Amino acid sequence: MAALCRLVVLALVFISALLTFAQTPSLHGIEVGDLDRSAQPCDDFYQFANGTWRANNPIPASMARWSRRWQAGEFAKDRLHDILEAAAAEKNAPKGGVDQVIGDYYGACMDEARVNARGIEPLKPWFAKIDAARDLAGLQDVMAELHDIIVNAPFALASQSDPHKPAWVLADIGASGISLPDRDYYLKPEPRFKEAREKYVVHVITMLKLAGWDQKSAAEGAQTIMGMETKLAEASLDNVALRDPAATDHNTTFAQLQAMAPHVDWSGYFKHKHLPTDVDLNVDQPKFMQEVDRQMQQNSVADWKIYLKWQLLDSVAGSLSAPIVEEDFAFKGKYLAGVAEMKPRWKRCAESTDQLLGEALGKKYVEKYFPPEAKARMQDMVRNLLVAMRDDILTRPWMSDDTKEKAMAKIATFNPKIGYPDKWKDYSHVDIRRDAFFEDMIAGRKFVEEDDRAQIGKAVDRGRWGMTPPTSDAYYNPLLNEIVFPAGILQPPAFDINAVDAVNYGAIGVVIGHEISHGFDDEGAQFDFLGRLRNWWTDADLKDFQARAACVANQFDHYFIEKDIHHNGKLVLGESIGDLGGAKIAFLAYQKSLEGKPRPADVDGFTPEQQFFVAWGQFRGDEIRPEAARLMVQSDPHPIAKYRVIGPLSNLPEFQKAWSCKADAPMVRPEGQRCEVW
Questions:
Q1: Which residues sit opposite 477 in a β-bridge?
Q2: How many of the other CB atoms lie within 10 Å of CB of 249?
Q3: Disulfide: which of 76, 189, 284, 616 matches 174 by Cβ 3.0-4.6 Å?
Q4: Burial of 355 by CB count in 10 Å (0-12 exposed, 13-18 middle, 19+ buried)?
Q5: Contacts 24+ apart (CB under 8 A), 660-668
Q6: Where are the alpha helices (DSSP H) in 64-111?
Q7: CB–CB of 342/221 below 8 Å?
Q8: pLDDT, tens digit, for every residue of 634-672?
Q9: 482-486 and 415-419: which strand pairing?
Q10: Is the peptide bond before 60 cis (omega within 30 degrees of 0)?
Q11: Residues with Cβ < 8 Å from 472, sequence gap 6 or more?
């Protein structure tokens, strides 16, 4: 009998094991259905990797770009929608608790009938404040109040780690106060910029009329606004210059600030902001501040009132009634980005909640959708990528031992942040009401501004995050030498716990490598292991590095989106070095992860190496509207997706080997033109 019982137990264990095995999903490879088999990987890898998906999934009317990655970002908002609907339905949530704060904010935003019935009523108290100013001093008082709600005109105040004492936070005064995408839209003579200026003036007139101005006043006001903004644009650095941290590094005393812009009441402004006049201070663009001072001196109080009213209206337009929201979208969304229609209101309300109350919403998001095993697997990958970057640098024949030693110190002090912060922000004192969306938005903005300003004059809080947990993105901060990956990006197609390692290393692995490489791109390489802005290179090594970077800039200078419009290689240089270095070290890390293990089997007919590269092509497989592409080429430091796939991979011998590409294939750059930084 005992023997029979043992047999029964063994049989049950065996059956249980079989069932467990049957229920455990096998790890999958790339999305083979996305491939365009009519394209050759050695000819156009972007088309090969994701051409069928793009053909079968046209850009939705409410989006400027579309791919599996963008689809995943919108799917994350579906999850936020569920969280917010549940919070909004909770009628007895404790005041100041997460559910009350996010639920009432979202609920008030979703009450479109109430928002529309109020029209421009919420703006009237603010317009009255501006109108009540009798002189420049009164206007500057109102300007300081507008800064409290992140209407940063004509300059902005924010906290920033001191680039020379990065453990300390200083006050940073930056250029702001123009409404077109960048300075070139005001200044360049090409037809597309001239047309944008004409459309902008019409847009301003329409918006001012919706805010209660008559035709004559609106038309005259638009010309005043355009004139003031154009002069500010002329005094601003262009996008390429802004990428050089040395160009905006101007440690300034309070006395020097007063001398730079003597017609600004800096004592009153600092008192309003609760900042001592001896606070550590940086002025990004002294020439811009001199132009602000000139306009303070020479422009009439009436002109400044027009300008400030417009800056307020433009900043909060999305939170007002439907006619203003629709006109704001018609110019910024339809005209500038080519988007056909607005996102549904629930999605705009979810995005607004994330922007202003992001860690309250993010806490609920990670509790529900970010499992501990995902964080653990990401931590392993980040460690492997850092080891790969270290090994790669040590093998660079063009770097001296002295420079390598300093690079090793930087690798050793990288601080990875994954998923969400260890300490959540406290929103309990933010006064959010279910019946007053505009005021809720103002309260949210005040919290964001005060939370940032409170850091000034203190030691750096290294636990703070620059993105909210649901954000589908990542970043590198050179001043803190940290790489940050919010939970929102850690989902397919970037990261999939059910995918083989080759796919994860080819997607999120390259993203990790990209952010690590930012520590050694043309901008990040100017900061040392402590985050200080100082040269740690030997002269010869720096010259060699700059020549290698110039190769990448030249490569992207020759990537066109239209006949006469091409990328500016210097503008996209940092991101392109990041992609090139990221792809290389992610591949090295993947190879290193296989050491001592059996070679993984091919999946769906593709080798592990091929899957790695396809995963990157599928993650970066954006289709983009022509208008959005023009906007990106002009002002975005990122290349369009096609060239983020083709550009780095065409430089890699590992890619050529994986696909057996001939030396003269389009996806193989000639050896003399091949770029290699890391």
A1: 482
A2: 15
A3: 284
A4: middle
A5: 660/42, 661/41, 661/42, 662/42, 665/42, 665/43, 666/42, 666/43, 666/44, 667/41, 667/42, 667/43, 667/44, 667/45, 668/42
A6: 68-89, 98-110
A7: no
A8: 999 999 999 999 999 999 999 999 999 999 999 999 988
A9: parallel
A10: no
A11: 69, 72, 73, 76, 486, 488, 489, 491, 494
Q: Which two tokens stand for residue 17?
A: 């094991």
Can you tell me the distance from the alpha carbon of 444 to that of 145, in angstroms, rounded to the nearest whole number? 15
In angstroms, the CA 246 to CA 360 distance is 36
Q: How far apart (Å, rounded) are the C-alpha atoms in residues 77 and 471?
A: 10
Q: pLDDT digits over 577-600, tens only?
A: 999 999 999 999 999 999 999 999
| Continuous H helices in 395-518 | 401-412, 437-453, 501-506, 508-518
Backbone angles phi, psi at 341, to 5 degrees: -150, 160
The helix or strand, by DSSP H or E, that contains position 217, with its residue range, turns out to be helix 215-234
DSSP state at residue 492: T
Q: Say if residues 461 and 477 touch (Cβ distance below 8 Å).
A: no
Q: Is the overall model pTM greater than 0.70, yes or no?
A: yes
d(CA 275, CA 158): 12
The SS3 of residue 180 is coil
- d(CA 670, CA 654) in angstroms, rounded, equals 14
Distance, CA of 631 to CA of 627 (rounded, Å):
6
Yes or no: say if 45 and 617 are a contact pair by the CB < 8 Å rule.
yes
Q: CB-based contacts of 300: which residues, under 8 Å, 6+ apart?
A: none
Inter-residue contact 32 to 604 (CB < 8 Å): yes
The CA-atom distances, in angstroms, between 613 and each of 45, 168, 291, 527, 567 are 9, 41, 49, 31, 24
How far apart CA 670 and CA 668 sit, in angstroms, is 6
Mean pLDDT, residues 379-396 taken together: 95
Tell me how far apart the alpha carbons of residues 83 and 350 are, in angstroms, rounded to a whole number.
10
In this structure, what token pair is assigned to residue 224?
Answer: 């005043």
pLDDT tens digit string along 512-523? Answer: 999 999 999 999
H or E element: which one contains 330?
Answer: none
User: 53 is written with which tokens?
Assistant: 């998906």
Question: Which residue carries 């620059």 as its tokens?
Answer: 466
The tokens of 207 are what?
């918006």
Residue 26: band (very low, low, confident or very high) from pLDDT cuts 50, 70, 90: confident
